[in-house]
Amino acid sequence: MTDSVDSSGYFDTKRHDTVKFKADYRRIRKYYKSPERWRKERERRKKAWQLFEEGLSYADIAGRVGVSERTVKRDMAKIKPYYERKVRNYKRRLEEARDAEFAAAIEGKSLSEQAKILERRWEVISNMLKLRKYLRHKIEVMIDLDADGGPALSFKPPMPFTVNYPFHIIIELVQKEKKTIIGSLKIS
Q1: Rg of the chain, C-alpha, whole Å
Q2: Residues 141, 163 contacting (CB under 8 angstroms)
Q3: Residue 154: CA atoms inside 13 Å, Cβ hemisphere, count?
Q4: Is residue 18 one of the residues assigned to a domain?
Q5: What is the SS3 assignment for 144?
Q6: Which domain, by its residues, includes 92?
Q7: What pLDDT band is residue 188 in, cutting at 50, 70 and 90?
Q8: Which of 72, 80, 110, 152 is buried deepest, with most CB atoms within 10 A?
Q9: What is the spatial distance between Cα 126 and Cα 118, in angstroms, rounded to a whole number?
């Protein structure tokens, strides 16, 4: 070991070169997608998102698009923030327009007129909140045959309600406290 160390105490690399590969193996190669490959991935993600919006599972989407389920999950993780951002921006623009409209409506009015405008706006907002409370994707219609005076019809959630598309209607028949699902209907 003494022959490999020179008088200054440093290892002599010229005499004992143990490096099997030169520095070339450490070079980082950059990966760039071609425009064609980028377009194909973009189209695949759009198609996967459309199928996801239709209510298909990741496995079904993967089968239709022709990729693995993990690729579909990765695509959804990449494209979901884009659509969330679009919705957030649209909501913000609507709120700004509504606020500007309200400011223009109360400008130059007396305090009593401003109070009346505020009351009407509060009524509209509270009615919207009540409707939002009953925004559903599923409606259950129960036909109770044991009720006095003939069959009774009841809805779950109770009326009035609003639905989001697509929504399901489930029809149940109740006889002697036993529920039987007659059928279901998906409306989109």
Answers
A1: 33
A2: no
A3: 11
A4: no
A5: strand
A6: 35-133
A7: low
A8: 72
A9: 12
Model's pTM, two decimal places? 0.42
Task: Give the model's confidence band at 69: pLDDT under 50 very low, under 70 low, under 90 confident, else very high.
Answer: very high
Q: For the segment 78-118, what is each residue's pLDDT rounded down to a tens digit?
A: 998 988 899 899 999 998 998 888 888 888 888 888 888 88
Strands annotated E in the chain: 135-144, 152-156, 162-175, 178-187
What does the alpha-carbon distance between residue 114 and residue 94 come to, in Å, rounded to a whole number?
A: 22
Q: Are 83 and 144 in a shared domain?
A: no
pLDDT per residue as tens digits for the range 13-48:
555 555 555 555 555 566 677 888 889 999 999 999
Residue 7 resides in a domain = no
Domain's final residue, options 98, 118, 133: 133
**Distance of alpha carbon 172 from its chain centroid, rounded?**
31
**Residue tagged 């598309």 (tokens):** 165
154 contacts: CB under 8 Å, gap ≥ 6: 141, 142, 144
List, in sequence order, every residue forming a beta bridge with 128; answer none if it has no partner.
none
Spatial neighbors of 123 by CB under 8 A, at least 6 apart, are none
Q: Report whether 78 contacts 45 (CB < 8 A).
A: yes
Residue 113 lies in a domain: yes
Looking up tokens 């919705």 gives: 87
Shared domain for 139 and 150, answered yes or no, is yes
For 176, the token pair is 């002697």
